[in-house]
Specification:
Layout: E1 3-10, H1 12-19, E2 25-29, E3 35-39, E4 52-60, E5 66-71
Antiparallel strand pairs: 1-4, 2-3, 4-5
């Protein structure tokens, strides 16, 4: 199953931009160098009072469609 691991650090202010619908995609660079443009909705479960921080792995099916996002 294809996957990509990346780090992300969004401040509270940055997270608010997504909630105010100023942005709806999050662009990250995977540890293998690929640039991923992911839907904001994937990150909502990981919001904390200080924003979103951590390392995540996203899994794709063989067709390249998103299957799940996991905090590592």
């Amino acid at each position: 199953m294809p996957q990509a691991t990346f780090d992300i650090a969004l401040s509270t202010e940055q997270v608010l931009l997504f909630y105010k619908a100023k942005k709806n995609r999050v662009q990250v660079v995977a540890k293998d160098g690929r640039t991923l443009n992911l839907p904001w909705e994937l990150f909502k479960p990981y919001i904390t009072p200080t924003g979103i921080r951590g390392t995540f792995t996203i899994f794709f099916d063989v067709g390249g469609k998103y299957e799940r996002l996991v905090a590592v």
